[in-house]
Amino acid sequence: MELIVQVCVSGLLLGGIYALISIGLNLIFGVVRIINFAHGEMVMVAMYLTFWLNYFFGMDPYVSTIIVLPVMFLFGVLIQRVIVQPIQNSSANMKIFATVALSLILQNVALIVCKGNFRTVQVPYGMSTIELAGIFISVPRLVAFFAALASITLLYYFLKNTYTGKALRAIVEDDTIARLMGVKVQNLYLLAFGIGCAFSALGGVLLMPFSSVYPSVGIPFTLIAFIVVVLGGLGSMGGTFLAGLFIGVVEAVGGTYVSPALKEAIYFGIFIIAILIRPQGIFGKGKGSEEVGLK
Amino acid sequence: MRTNKLIIATAILMLGLLVVPVFFTSTFILHMFTLVFFYIALTAAWNIPAFGGKFSLGHAAFFGLGGYTAAILYVKCGISPYIGMFAGTFVAMLGGVILSFPLVRLKGPFFTLASIAFAEVLRMVAVDWRSLTNGSVGINIPFKPGWLNLTFTSGMPFYYIAMGLAIAVILLSWWIRSSSLGYHLRAAAADEDAAKALGINTAKSHFLGLMWSSGLTGLIGVLYVFYNYVLEPGSGFSMDRFSLQPAMNGIIGGMGTIWGPVIGAIIMTPLGEFLRFYLGTIQQGLNFVVYGLMLIAVVNFVPGGIVSLMEPWFKKKKSGDSSAADN
Questions:
Q1: Is B10 exposed, middle or buried (0-12, 13-18, 19+ CB in 10 A)?
Q2: Which residues of A touch B124 (CB under 8 A)?
Q3: Has residue B321 got a pLDDT over 50?
Q4: N or C: more exposed end of chain B, with fewer CB within 10 A?
Q5: Distance in angstroms (rounded) separating the CA atoms of residues A200 and A17
């Protein structure tokens, strides 16, 4: 009994990071309408940045967000401008090819520059835990969860209450009409890609104190983020958040009770079952919304 | 007259390919040709769902399922590789049935994603299920030369096997593309809703396309394992070599066409080997950076793939032949 609670809690905390990464994907998906296969690689790049900042300057991972997040925001803007914008009007498949190519390039540049070794950041609080009612909670995971929660809330208020946020939501609803209403769609695409990228980067930074980075670390994140977005429903922030937590718990429980090697098999199973039952996602906006962003 | 010329040209090419092993006894050249044939077959099989606009990044799943089935049957149960071929094809098609759920239920990108996940999951299962697959160590095909064991002392038999396989898959994909299934798939690729409105059961067409594709890929996997002697999760379910490479060949050559995959495989396989051998030793991974850049260039400048550049030439060559226009 103790164990299951323990496992669920640690899964829930990890799920917060998954939610963070997935919300970045959801934003890019909804606004720019591109299926970003290089999303996990954004996490990977951010993790490497955190690692190198720590390695060369001894910078604490949490402190390094002040450098990593702006850099990754600009990186996202650059990707949108250089890779995506030229093919904005071609078919969905072409956009997939372009982002697959980007993910290949990023992974292999990482392999060339950083070699295939697992890199970790050594921090004094990496293994520290706090005890709460007999359950041990890892401090970096707890920090990650609350940082994720805070930034998701922040994004939610930004989208709900500011003019730019409203414009972004208008593009998600219908970008042609948004354009007709005078929304500067091209600029907001850049912004959305930048924010999406910064969110996944934050996920990467928060992961660093308790996990390691290697060139292909991003592949599972791409898959998880898509599964979470499908489960949560496109354009649904709350849905994405809950689905992220759910996948985190499933991973922890599956990894503990079945086999750590098979946790991806478990996601895949859930993914298949979920799309069979409700293709628009558990919290999706209704039938047909699974097709958003595919035109 | 023009068709006659084309037949003669094809016949000369075939004869030329038939006598290659007689003149080039170097193992490297034979291996390169064999590899090109394998990749032509693999890319053409990958291409069948692409007639319907769907493409997978997880064909290693079918490749590995086929290869593992035959290898396990042969090594652990002593069952002939010829029976293993059928078994491997069948198991790969079962994998296709599983992957057909996201294919039929969701639009393009989700199928692609599900296919990556599927192949990765199978790779992990192959690592984890040690009693069946020997885990990361892999399965070795014992060296007992003879047609009965599909194991040979020279590279020649496999040169012809792979060549026959490539030709068979090209012809099959040609036949599928010009059959009613092919027309249904192409209609679905052009406009899924319009195709449905015309009474085409697009779900069934996508499903059948994937069945052909997965079965053929499984068969290719079986033959490749016997060519390669060794099968381990990292190679059998290799994302780079059997998921990305065929997709890359197909996209760069021209997805959804008959000759695109062939041209793609002919260009990319030697290039890939060259990059792996010469650049790969300097910088591991550099070959994939080159592929990625090529892919971005193709997407930006020749979205139809290399085959679309050759289209005017094809049309002139075969004017009057109506089927040329859509090849």
A1: exposed
A2: 261-262, 264-265
A3: no
A4: N
A5: 9
- Calculate the CA dihedral of residues B26, B29, B35, B38 and round it to 10 degrees: -90
The answer, for A107 touching chain B at a CB cutoff of 8 Å, is yes
Residue B319 φ then ψ, to 5°:
-60, 140
Give the pLDDT band (50/70/90) at residue A185: confident
Q: Is residue A83 part of a domain?
A: yes
**Taking CB atoms and an 8 Å limit, are A223 and B113 in contact across chains?**
yes
Would you list the domain boundaries of chain B? 28-319
Nearest to B128 among A90, A112, A261 (CB): A261
For residue B324, the model assigns a pLDDT of 39
Q: Which range of residues forms the domain containing residue A32?
A: 7-121+138-291
Residue B181 tokens read as 């299934």
Buried b vs exposed e over B91-126: b needs ≥16 C-beta within 10 Å?
bbbebbebbbbbbbbbbbbbbbbbbbbbbbbbbbbb
Q: Which residue has the tokens 């929304």?
A: A183
Measured distance CA(A67)–CA(A198) in Å, rounded: 11
The predicted model scores a pTM of 0.84
Residue A131 covered by a domain: no
Q: How many domains does chain A have?
A: 1
CATH label of the domain that carries residue A82: 1.10.3470
Does residue A113 sit at the B interface (CB-CB below 8 Å)? no
Mean pLDDT of chain B: 84
Q: Is A78 on the interface with B (CB under 8 A)?
A: no
What is the separation of C-alpha A42 from the centre of its chain, rounded to a whole number of angstroms? Answer: 9
Residue A94 inside a domain? The answer is yes
A87·B299 Cβ contact <8 A? yes
In tens, the pLDDT along A21-49 reads 999 998 888 888 888 889 999 999 999 99
Question: Within the 208-227 window of chain A, which residues sit less than 8 Å (CB to CB) from chain B?
Answer: 215, 219-220, 222-223, 226-227
Counting Cβ atoms within 10 Å, is residue B222 exposed (0-12), middle (13-18) or buried (19+)?
buried
B152-175 pLDDT tens trace: 777 788 889 999 999 999 999 999
Is A278 exposed, middle or buried, given 0-12, 13-18 or 19+ CB atoms closer than 10 A?
A: middle
Going by C-alpha positions, the residue among B113, B88, B86, B85 that lies closest to residue B99 is B113
Which CATH fold topology does B28-319 show? ABC transporter involved in vitamin B12 uptake, BtuC (1.10.3470)
Closest CA to B60 of B262, B285, B245: B245
- B289 to A275: CB separation less than 8 angstroms, yes or no: no
Cα gap B169→B215, rounded to integer Å: 11
Flag whether residue A253 sits within 8 Å of chain B, measured between CB atoms: no
Digit-coded pLDDT (tens) for B59-95: 999 999 999 999 999 888 888 889 989 999 999 999 9
Contact residues, chain B, for A30 at CB < 8 Å: none
